Every structure is written in C-alpha cells, then in structure tokens.
Amino acid sequence: MVLKLYAGPTDEPLTLTELKNQLRIDSNDEDTFLRSLITVARRLLERYTFRSFMTQTWQLNLDAFPSSDEECIRLPMGPVQSVTSVTYYDESGVQQTLSPSVYKTDIVSEPGRIYLAENESWPTNVLDELNAVTIIYVAGYESADSVPSELKQAMLLMCGDLYLNRESWDYGKVPDMISAPIAGLCEPYRVFEFV
C-alpha cells in the first residue's frame, strides 16, 4: 500500500485570528510565521491521527485487488467523502477504469471502505506489478466548522508549543512531539488501524 497526497486542502481548520487570540498576539508582525504554524500543526496532527482535517484528495496504490470478493479496500486518512476513480493495469499493461457500478463506497465507517456491489467480483486480470491498482478519493471534514473542537484545540496547543519552542522540535519524530494534553484531545479521533 502506497498513500500519497494528490491535492491538498485549500483552507485550514483554524483562522489566523483564532491563533492570535490563543497566543494573545496583537501585532501583525508574525502573521506569515503564524499561518505556517497552523499548516504545520494540521499536518503533524493529521499524521498522528491518520485523519484528514480538511477536504483533500488522496491517491492509494495497491499491488492487487482483494483476494476474496468478501474483502473490502480500506481507505486511510478519512473521513471519506467520495471515491473519484478506481483504475488498474490489466495483464496487457493497459490501464482500465473500474466501473462505479461494480463497487460501493462506505463513507460512514472509520476507516471508509470500498466494497463490491451485489453479484460483482474484483478484477482478476490485474498486471502482476507493484502499485497496479490506483484509487483516487476525497477525504476530510467538509468545512472548518465541521472539524471536531477537540482537534482544533489540539492544533491551537501545538501551535502554541511550536511558537514558544521555535528551534527545539524534531519534525521527524511526530509521536515524541505530541504532549499529553494534545494526545488526550486527539485520542478519540485516532484511526488505530493505520497508526
């Protein structure tokens, strides 16, 4: 399984004003830096929770379809909004698009899933090659207002930590960077199947 961000969000869950109120900052001198902190905090907490905070598009590559028609494909970084396309390379190396009538999308479950429609089967003529199957899907909360308040508060706390400790963070060690209060706020929203 290979997961790549296909198209990032156009908005953030927090506004600059919300962060400046949290940090009690009145001037505009550091607005650019503060905006970058919002983005960094969102990305770090998305990695920690394995959840998309704002609408974004993901590309999931698999080596093959499930081996059994009862198996489903789990979609990381939910909540899933929709599946854009499911494509695969057939045994001749030609890219094929799986008809949306063949599968259904479960956007209620966490993680979201793609499963077969009744009386359908996963393609068996898939090229025996890495990443032969590609799924493009949209995930994330649809607006900043629909992002759970606990996740927004975790972002505010992380932005505060990043603001006060500008030079002591090791961005490669996300779990070590999450303080107990931030982890506590995020815990109910972590998708442990992928963490």
Walk me through what this model shows.
With 195 residues, the chain is of the alpha+beta class. The protein has two domains: 2-54 and 143-189, Hypothetical protein yqbg (Orthogonal Bundle); 56-139. Helix content is 28%, strand content 23%. The protein contains five helices and eight strands, in the order E-H-H-E-E-E-E-E-E-E-H-H-H. It has helices at residues 16-23, 31-49, 149-164, 174-177, 180-186, and strands at 2-7, 56-62, 73-75, 80-89, 95-97, 103-106, 112-116, 133-139. Strands 1-2-8-4-5 form a five-stranded antiparallel sheet, with no helix packed on it. A three-stranded antiparallel sheet has the order 3-7-6, with no helix packed on it. Helix 2 (31-49) crosses helix 3 and helix 3 runs antiparallel to helix 5. The radius of gyration is 19 Å and the shape is elongated. The model has no long low-confidence stretch (mean pLDDT 92).
In short:
With 195 residues, the chain is α+β, with helices and mostly antiparallel strands.
Structure characteristics:
195 residues, alpha+beta, Hypothetical protein yqbg, 2 domains, five-stranded antiparallel β-sheet, three-stranded antiparallel β-sheet, 5 helices, 8 strands, 28% helix
